[in-house]
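Final report, results section. Input specification for complex C-07:
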Amino acid sequence: MESLPQDKYDVLKLENQLCFPLYACAKEVIRRYREPLDALGLTYTQYIVMMVFWEFGGMTEGELGEKVRLDSGTLAPLLKRLEKQGLVKRSRPEDNERKLFVCLTDEGKALKEKALTVPEAMRGCIDLPVEDLILLKMLLEKVLAQMD
Amino acid sequence: MESLPQDKYDVLKLENQLCFPLYACAKEVIRRYREPLDALGLTYTQYIVMMVFWEFGGMTEGELGEKVRLDSGTLAPLLKRLEKQGLVKRSRPEDNERKLFVCLTDEGKALKEKALTVPEAMRGCIDLPVEDLILLKMLLEKVLAQMD
DNA sequence: TACTAACTAATTGCGCGCAATAAAACAGTG
DNA sequence: CACTGTTTTATTGCGCGCAATTAGTTAGTA
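Structure output:
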């Protein structure tokens, strides 16, 4: 049972796009993070960077970039801001001064505790059955894996 | 069958986030649009704005903003750029000069034909079963609808 | 030692994305 | 008409996001 082709321009309709709801949904969810993150003084991007450090500890900018899918053009200034806030420390490894090693300060480590309020605040922000959310997450990861 | 709670910080792991794959996936897909859109001289955001005009014709900035979920801070300069490129015309309705009416120029209308190459180029960019993509789109729209 | 190539991060430039504020036009009321 | 509040868009300020370029470090090779 197929829908009949009506207009060759149908492919340009917003409602027929997959990317638009993807783009809009990501923006909307990230917007909701702002309020809980303001309490930590972090942007959403800074938050995911901090999550990586909380979970894995210090690493180079390049390694970080692979995990969060961001390049040096975004991360270099972002990491400087985090350092200015006293959350991370940037240094050059003696054995290879091209690399930039970044690790948490005590203050950065301590913020992990406060950060627990963020998932707490976001819980229930998306009022959908858990199965739907799990399925959505799986599909997104499938798409990402496929595009790598 | 539930997984046992292991660590109260598990909620801060990147792999347990729904938002991160959403954010990463949107960025990745939009990045893939760049090449086909470069041929039209449009960014992704400009492209979805043009799609709205192609489908619905001229409208005010406010109406446009509702459709594409963007505010004046983003749309005002974007529309000026589109006008500078000769794709749209901005004007003030005589009956209400607060509003900004935007409509396509002949050049803007003509670009619709060329824009058919974009969905064409993107087809197969996400190499997944169509059912998965449809399901993904439905879930995203469900989330969006729920957050309104 | 020189020379070259590869690697890693920083910088530049431009366009969002959005909260906050400002400015202009309109509508309603006394 | 003057005054007040609302509506609509524009502006400001800051932080991404990313392609392209630059710069510094390291490694490899003659």
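The domain at 41-112 of chain A is CATH 1.10.10.10 (Arc Repressor Mutant, subunit A). The two ends of chain A are 33 Å apart (CA to CA). This concludes the modelling results for the funded period.
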